[in-house]
Amino acid sequence: VSPDEEGICSGKYFTEAGLVGLLEQAAASFSMAGMYEAVNEVYKVLIPIHEANRDAKKLSTIHGKLQEAFSKIVHQDGKRMFGTYFRVGFYGTKFGDLDEQEFVYKEPAITKLAEISHRLEGFYGERFGEDVLEVIKDSNPVDKCKLDPNKAYIQITYVEPYFDTYEMKDRITYFDKNYNLRRFMYCTPFTLDGRAHGELHEQFKRKTILTTSHAFPYIKTRINVVHKEEIILTPIEVAIEDMQKKTQELAFATHQDPADPKMLQMVLQGSVGTTVNQGPLEVAQVFLSEIPNDPKLFRHHNKLRLCFKDFTKR
Question: Beta 133-136 vs 152-161: how paired, if at all?
């Protein structure tokens, strides 16, 4: 919406009716997108206008639509799909301004890595030639010196929305966890000798947290990354995280309503079964069989013991 040349806002949208029309369109679009919580926010602006005009007919329509929106929130609990996110990095002088830029792409829900990879490969392959474009298959930090200057490289990684512990207090519902997102995370396992996976006692993990310049959902489906931080987890911290995740899965499976025996069976097998040598038993044997010599590790050692206490309770 832009004012005309004299700077006087005389366009058809610069009237009360124009504003009401735009807001109604917005509400309808949010409804189509399955973002019913946002429908409520838009109508919060509209209701006072109609109340001031004593327009009972409009108010009745709006309250009808609000009822629809709220009942959909109740009925579609957990069934709504919002989006899948990927980090895409561009490397190589062929990309011009894009060189060394990273973006977070928002894709339709349940997009697989192979799909977006195929699409971007096709798009940039057409532009630069398929022999010039190369997709980097891992998510390790890219070393520019090792790249061929005559090629264009794309690195694609699946990322998940990331929240600090304090944020989780406000982000309670599934909608809250998928709306107004600016931070994303991906994990890369590594060992000190360069392999990705190793024994439990040598398995480190790098968590990379990306912050975008705007929040999703946004007008564009890709937003550039403005900040990046890395957290390195030591093997015992990796074990603590794994145990916490296992305990959460157990808690979820035992409290499911209605109960789901198949799910519980799967989680229990993953927790107790010894087929996989990286199970909780192995974790306990590696990290808890003796008290560590390094006082710095006491806190982690204790935390892991408490994790196991919680786990056995579950």
Answer: parallel
Residues 6+ apart with CB under 8 A from 149: 92, 93
Number of CB atoms found within 10 A of residue 91's CB: 22
pLDDT digits (tens, 9 = 90+) for 7-40: 666 667 778 888 999 999 999 999 998 899 999 9
Comparing C-alpha atoms, which of 10, 33, 218, 39 is closest to residue 1? 10
Give one DSSP letter per residue of 36-64, joined into a string. HHHHHHHHHHHHHHHHHTT-HHHHHHHHH
Query: Residue type at 52?
Result: A
Instruction: Set out the domains of the chain in order of their start, with CATH numbers.
Output: 14-74 (1.25.40.410), 82-232 (no CATH), 235-311 (1.20.58.740)
Packing angle of the helix pair 298-313, 235-254 (nearest 10 deg): 20
- What pLDDT, in 10s, does the model give residues 109-125? 889 999 999 999 999 99
Q: Which residues contact 218 (CB under 8 A, 6 or more apart)?
A: 106
Give the whole-angstrom CA distance, residue 28 versus residue 46.
13
CA 19 – CA 8 distance, rounded (Å): 16
Helix, strand or coil, per DSSP, at residue 100: coil
CA distance 311 to 239: 13
| Residue 142 contacts residue 89 (beta carbons within 8 Å) | yes
Q: How far is CA 119 from the centre of its chain?
A: 21
Question: Do residues 137 and 112 touch, judged by C-beta distance below 8 A?
Answer: no
pTM: 0.82
> Hey, which bits of 108-249 come out as E strands?
133-136, 152-161, 181-190, 204-216, 222-233
First to last CA, the chain: 57
pLDDT of the residue at 309: 94
